[in-house]
Amino acid sequence: MSAIFHFSGMLSVLLLLICTCAFVRSVVPQLLDTHRTGWKGVFWKMARIGERLSPYVAAACIVQAFVVLMGI
């Protein structure tokens, strides 16, 4: 089964995508800033979510790690 079909897996993929995009934008900003529209704009938007909501994203990552490790 794909991770997309399980809510827990989908949430993990989404959180990893947000964290990865925010990290890439902090290291190489011109890589994501040049593509603000189109399908590549999704990655720019994920990076913005990661930057602006970083305390909430961090809390969600901690909760998700606990859920994955405990098998809930």
TrEMBL record:
Gene Ontology cellular-component annotations: Golgi membrane
Answer yes or no on keyword Translocase.
no
Extract the InterPro entries matched here. Answer: KISH_domain, Ksh1
Q: Which UniProt keywords apply?
A: Golgi apparatus, Membrane, Signal, Transmembrane, Transmembrane helix
* Principal place of residence: Golgi
What are the subcellular locations of this protein? Golgi apparatus membrane
Superkingdom as given in the UniProt entry: Eukaryota
In its keyword annotation, does this UniProt entry include Transmembrane helix?
Answer: yes
The positions making up the signal sequence are 1-26
Its membrane topology: Single-pass type I membrane protein
Q: Which residues cross the membrane?
A: 53-71
Under Pfam families, the record lists: DUF1242
Cited function: Involved in the early part of the secretory pathway.
> What family name appears in the similarity comment?
Belongs to the KISH family.
Q: What is this protein called?
A: Protein kish
Provide the organism lineage as a comma list. Eukaryota, Metazoa, Ecdysozoa, Arthropoda, Hexapoda
